[in-house]
Design a protein that fits this description.
Layout: H1 6-10, E1 54-55, E2 62-63, H2 73-97, H3 105-128, H4 134-158, H5 163-183, H6 191-218, H7 228-258, H8 265-293
Antiparallel strand pairs: 1-2
């Protein structure tokens, strides 16, 4: 099973690029159930130092012995802070340097759209690379920050000055809530959970694409998924999906640490978490814009 996150779907942290602890039938040429892909002393895996894994009795996930160069939670936190810090810094700079007043609105929007496209390209490049590239990840974060800064400035200027702060606080609350729920095992990432989230995400994205096509060729707001009552409903659904993505990301990070993934994999974890948090922030900003715009 692969993660919903395109970063993790390329190089899964657990066995068979899937989640630990599932009793899936082993495929031909794949490690046997319970095998640790980072603990196989083969040429395909140069990171292995110990062929044995310790069993985590509480959660049922094999846990790799501590070794030099293995990914830790501190590594993930540090890289995530660096990546998100780059997003926040460039967002603040673009907010200050790219005004969205009537005289500069078109120019600022053009730069924001260009930055979003460049960020998308960097994200796709990293998603298809076999190894993490800190330079590409930080470049993605920088251009994504430019886009978010201009969009946030526009919302603050033309809708409500408090909407951006509300969206930031809302994103932080979603992150904290999902983290607590995951650590307390109120959320259990299973195959059924994964399948439900992926099906819902594909349906959500498909509807948004159809709505965009209708708005481009038909004018207005398309099918109405981005405004009014339907906009509020789909905004809530988007935030819930983002929260589900966070749970999948936490599971992948946990598996990576348990299996003794190499330290450079922490950059992929930071990249994936940043992608998910940007998704949640944008959905939160859109939802609050609709609510505040109706006041």
């Amino acid at each position: 099973m692969r993660s919903s996150n395109p970063v993790f779907s390329r190089r899964g942290f657990s066995r068979d690029n899937g989640y630990a602890g599932f009793n899936a039938a082993p495929q031909a040429g794949a490690p046997a159930a319970g095998a640790n892909p980072y603990a196989q002393g083969t040429a395909a895996n140069p990171y292995a130092t110990n062929p044995y894994a310790q069993q985590d009795v509480q959660h049922g996930a094999p846990q790799a012995p501590a070794r030099s160069g293995a990914m830790t939670i501190d590594d993930v936190v540090t890289r995530t802070a660096m990546t998100l810090g780059t997003v926040v810094l460039t967002a603040a700079l673009s907010w200050a340097l790219l005004p969205v007043d009537e005289a500069n609105l078109g120019k600022s929007y053009g730069i924001a759209i260009g930055a979003a496209l460049v960020a998308f390209v960097f994200a796709m490049i990293q998603s298809f690379k076999r190894k993490a590239s800190p330079a590409i990840i930080l470049a993605y974060a920088a251009f994504e920050g430019v886009f978010l800064g201009v969009i946030s400035s526009a919302v603050s200027t033309y809708i409500s000055p408090g909407t951006v702060m509300q969206a930031v606080m809302g994103t932080m609350c979603v992150f904290a809530g999902v983290l607590i729920a995951y650590k307390m095992r109120w959320i259990r990432v299973t195959r059924r959970f994964y399948g439900f989230v992926m099906a819902a995400a594909m349906g959500f994205v498909l509807l948004m694409v159809v709505n965009l096509l209708f708005s481009v060729f038909g004018g207005g707001d398309g099918l109405g998924f981005r405004s009014g009552g339907l906009g509020i409903l789909f905004g809530v659904i988007g935030i819930i999906l983002g929260a589900c993505f966070l749970a999948l990301d936490f599971k992948q990070v946990e598996d990576g640490i348990n299996y003794g993934a190499p330290r450079e994999e922490s950059w992929l974890a930071a990249f994936g978490l940043t992608l998910t948090l940007v998704w949640i922030y944008l959905e939160m900003l859109r939802l609050l814009s609709i609510l505040n715009g109706d006041d």
